[in-house]
TrEMBL record:
Keywords: Membrane, Transmembrane, Transmembrane helix, Transport. The keyword Membrane applies. InterPro entries: AmpG_permease/AT-1 (IPR004752), MFS (IPR011701), MFS_trans_sf (IPR036259). It comes from Desulfomonile tiedjei (strain ATCC 49306 / DSM 6799 / DCB-1). It is a multi-pass membrane protein. This is Arabinose efflux permease family protein. The chain crosses the membrane at residues 7-24, 36-59, 71-90, 96-119, 139-158, 164-182, 203-222, 244-264, 276-296, 302-327, 339-360, 366-387. GO terms for cellular component: membrane. Pfam families: MFS_1.
């Protein structure tokens, strides 16, 4: 399958992945609050994020039982059925059934994520993962806009029953299309109790696993630490809700998508390792734009717009490289479990950063805190030499270079250049003999030089 067809599939799959996430994280809170759910109960909605963090616990089932296509299609069709059930429940009288449906939506959405990520890893060659992750980011963000923005508006215009039934229809169509996804041939171990440990043993038994885990924890720490503070900063700088909507819904999304696509294209040419270096530094330095704007209020709203665009674009670059790296280091035999585990490790950083970001900003102020977020990812660059050994394209290049050097030495030793001197150049009375170039092995006969 050529790259163009793969990119179409990746775009479809990650739109399908982002669509239910937007419904759960953005649309449902609006729907439930409009129907009178208390703020205390609304706070419980934060628990729906748990399945996304804990999905590695049941990811081995996706690795060993059934095909990726069936898991993807089955999850989408079940999600469609759950949305239809949600319509029949009264949101003004929340009960255990309503919470069970919401929890089931999150679990099935996370399960779909596991299967789609695994299928994508198996579909793509390592050199294709960079550009594919650019398209992945774009499709995912478009899905969030559609499900978290368009369908909220649709609920207000035509009613929530219509909006949720339309959601179910899209999920159902997506599930039917997924049944026809091309088969990807990957060797898998037979299921057994021992095989449940295999993905974890395979990952943690590799040389240099500790530096790689530390790299994963630190690489996006600056973005994760700044994220929860950006919107309060906008409000404190006097931006209106309309201006914030323009940044988050239009300019910021466009910049992030552009960054992801640009990063993907560049990695397709220069590789993931260079992308991690260059794009990682870019996302660090983009935080200085926010620090500068916070330190000098005279920059006004234009300064805030510029800082937001720069940060969104550079974050898109860094995210494209980071996700391509995570995909590339997964063993294709255990791709579902290993990618789910790696993404869970990454989420731990986000939870920790979000927890302390408000306290740190109160203590330091916006300008100084944004400067600190520049420093937070820097430790990750100390681990890049270990990371390089894990990237298949880099390890293969090293093997090729090593083999080339060995062949060059062997050729130099076994095949010296022979120069036949003219008879007059030999001392008187000595027979003519071959002379060898300077630096070649001193041997008396060509036959001996080729002896094992």
């Amino acid at each position: 399958m050529n790259l163009d067809k793969k990119l179409v599939l990746i775009s479809f799959l990650y739109f399908a992945e982002g669509f239910p996430f937007g419904i759960i994280e953005q649309t449902l809170p609006v729907y439930l609050r409009l129907h009178g759910m208390s703020l205390a109960s609304m706070g419980m909605l934060s628990l729906v994020s748990l399945p996304y963090a804990l999905k590695f616990l049941w990811a081995p089932a996706v690795d060993f039982l059934g095909s990726r296509r069936r898991w993807i299609a089955g999850s989408q069709l079940i999600l469609a059925g759950l949305m239809c059930t949600l319509v029949a429940l009264d949101p003004e009288s929340p009960n255990i059934m309503l919470w069970a449906i919401i929890a089931s939506l999150a679990i099935m959405s996370a399960t779909q994520d596991i299967a789609i990520d695994a299928y994508s890893i198996e579909l793509l060659d390592t050199r294709e993962m960079g550009v594919a992750n650019g398209f992945r980011q774009a499709a995912y963000r478009v899905a969030l806009i559609v499900s978290g923005g368009l369908f909220v508006a649709l609920g207000g215009w035509l009613g929530w029953t219509t909006a949720f039934m339309a959601t179910a229809a899209i999920l159902c169509i997506s599930g039917l299309i997924s049944l026809g996804l091309p088969h990807v041939d990957v060797r898998r171990s037979p299921f057994s109790a021992a095989s449940l440990k295999a993905p974890f043993k395979d990952l943690f038994a590799r040389a240099g696993v500790v530096p790689v885990i530390l790299f994963i924890l630190f690489y996006k720490l600056g973005d994760l630490a700044m994220g929860p503070i950006v919107r309060p900063f906008w409000l404190d700088r006097g931006l209106t809700t309309e201006e914030i909507g323009l940044i988050t819904g239009t300019l910021g999304v466009f910049a992030a998508i552009s960054g992801g696509l640009a990063g993907g294209m560049l990695m397709n040419r220069h590789g993931i390792y260079r992308g991690l270096w260059i794009f990682g530094l870019a996302q660090c330095f983009s935080h200085f734009a926010y620090a500068f704007v916070a330190a000098y209020p005279v920059t006004g709203h234009i300064g805030v717009y510029f800082a937001s665009l720069a940060e969104s674009f550079c974050s898109g670059l860094g995210t494209a490289a980071f996700l391509a790296f995570l995909m590339s280091i997964c063993n294709r035999e255990f791709s579902a479990t290993q990618y789910a585990l790696l993404s869970a490790i990454f989420r731990v950083t986000g939870i920790a950063a979000g927890t302390f970001s408000g306290f740190a900003t109160d203590a330091l102020g916006y300008a100084f805190y944004f400067g600190v977020t520049f420093l937070l990812p820097l430790p990750s660059f100390a681990f890049l030499s270990h990371v390089r050994n894990w990237i298949p394209e880099e390890s293969k290049s090293a093997e090729v270079r090593s083999k080339s050097d060995i062949d060059h030495v062997r050729d130099s030793a076994e095949e010296p250049t022979i120069v036949r001197l003219r008879k007059k150049d030999y001392p008187a009375g000595e027979p003519a003999r071959p002379a060898y170039r300077e630096g070649a092995p001193e041997i008396s006969e060509i036959r001996d030089s080729r002896a094992p």
